[in-house]
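Sample 3 of the quickstart, ligand PRP:
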Amino acid sequence: MKPIRIALTKGRLENKTVELLERLGYDCTNARKKGRKLIMPIGNGEIEVVLAKAADVVTYVESGVCDMGVVGKDTIMEKGGTFYEVADLGFGKCRFAVATLKEKDLYEGYRTLTIASKYVNVAKNYFEQKNMDVDVVKIEGSVELAPVLGLADAIVDIVETGTTLKENGLVVKEEVCPVSARLIVNIASMKLRKKEIEELIDKIEKDIKKRAKEA
Ligand code: PRP
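Result:
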């Protein structure tokens, strides 16, 4: 039987996803001792794990080279795509927010604001909903630098603990929306491997419920 191939987001979500798979009873020794390997079987080989960057998880699942994926809602909101989003996994919790220098009043005067973000679509959509015309500048990382250096009036970014903002003299001015890890499924896989995939989703949903009760 061909394994179900699951793309996992490397980094912050990786460990939590491996923990989830372990709670479901899959032996994840290969994922724990992976070295620089990017594809590995887990359990008794019924699942194959692929480690990828967040945006690429979406690409691999959308194209069908991976059946399922675990990726943040932030990436889904930014990149979009055609796939099923079947579960909120309840970890990787953070939020999108508008932040800038503590003393700055974003709405004084009638200027067009410049917003820096790694998530240009999320930033554009947010201000569009407020009927505000803004210039969005794409920054690849450490976006907190932009208002500090005077490149932008504010940022739209992920806030988890708030430490990065605080240590750089920035504060949240507006909440955009909550973010967490999501389970996504390729549309064709959902039809062709319905039984196996639904069984796995079912196990995951039971685990989510169990953890929610314990919390
Ligand atoms: C994210 C985000 C913030 C930071 C927020 O960056 O862009 O910089 O985490 O976390 P905190 O609220 O717990 O401080 P990440 O570490 O993913 O790296 P990046 O800046 O390269 O995107």
